[in-house]
Design brief:
five-stranded parallel sheet; globular; 46% helix; Rossmann fold; 493 residues; alpha/beta
Amino acid sequence: MNFISTRGGEKVTGAQAIVKGLAEDGGLFVPEKFPQVTREELEGMLSMSYPERAAAIIGRYLDEYDGGELLSALEAAYSKFEGDPAPLVKIEENIFMLELWHGPTCAFKDMALTVLPYLLRKGCDLCGIKDTVLILVATSGDTGKAALEGFKDAEGVKIMVFYPDDGVSKMQKLQMCTQEGSNVDVLAVKGNFDDCQSAVKQIFSSEECAKQLAQKHVILSSANSINFGRLVPQIAYYFSAYLDMVSGGQIEMGEQIDFTVPTGNFGNILAAYYAKKMGLPIRRLHCASNLNNVLTDFLSQGVYDIHRPFYKTTSPSMDILISSNLERLLFEICGRDSARTAALMQSLKDKGEYKVTDEERARIAETFDGGFANEDEVVETIYDLFLDTGYTMDTHTGCAMKVVNDWFYKNKKDTIKMVVVSTANPYKFPQDVLYAVTGNDVKDSFKGIKRLHAATAMAVPKSLSALRDKPVRFTKTVKRENLFEEILQFVQS
């Protein structure tokens, strides 16, 4: 299987795509074609464990990786999770939660970032690369910690994480700034997530930066979802959720289902779209946003416009206005026309907006629709579900549940089975979830955890409660234009 850039000519292997992270023309790597999974193959996966299912999906894209070795790596990665890596929980008659937060850092990013170190290390071997790999990560909260945990003390790898100085939750910040490991660095950046992400992409695209790093025998790679190695493990949990629905007698094999996905950078929902392209019986994908609802507007109007207020919300992982992975969807709905995709991206860079044609918009509408929740609606949605069912969800999942409720309110006769993708443990946002569930407002995160536990009796992850006693290692804040200086200093350290 070869990979191509969304913006033009470059053709590479899967290993090269993972090591490079971003194509040289600034585009994102996509598979040359989508491998198909037949009904018979799906039936054969029913009896498989989660790592076996993941190996079956990932191996279809990364066919130069040894299958047995890949399975061993996946088994090792998911052994770090508490129980089933991606359990499905029935909430209401036709509504199910796909819980993706049972990993080491309590967020869905663990599903891919426990696996990516193996994919990258093996990719370097397959490409004959001996240089140090420097991983740059822009994070709106969860990716940073999951990447740090995945790559800490990894041989031949260094990792730098950049987060917006006032754009992550207190618990997310504490998770990152107390990170252990001799090969890690964490920096706050003045600005929002889009500032972090665009600065990192600029460094990736700079020949001068690459040249200076090459002199020090360092190459750059990414652990953000712009890297296909981050994306491909995420495709697997959509297959696994479907198979669990069949095994549990909720649906018949071949019956279609819907997914609702809270997303900011469009990676998580794009993985669902890729699963559909591979033949998984998905009817519709519902894209859930918070007040930063640029995706909602794009999906309904066909215009992507970042000229709008930026809101800091209680769902900070979705406080994003430039959704990088949308480029991969554009490439598909433009008929895989790289020149057209590049032109749209250039328009976004130059004018802060682009518009798709009516035909392209119709192709999007065949599968996607969008909705959003404001801050009050998130609170009400979390409270209502807890009151009705006793189920506690985080703020991002609260956005998704609001979109689900709106869908069924507007489509009262719809009997589709709906899977809501739950992306983070509620204890990652203890004060906000506590306020939603009880109306109590506390300033301290650990008091929030204590009171939320008292209110819900939900188990507190040890990795979060242990943060109280961990020393803070990283406190530096920098301007976005100074990132490369910091990178050079870190490389030399």
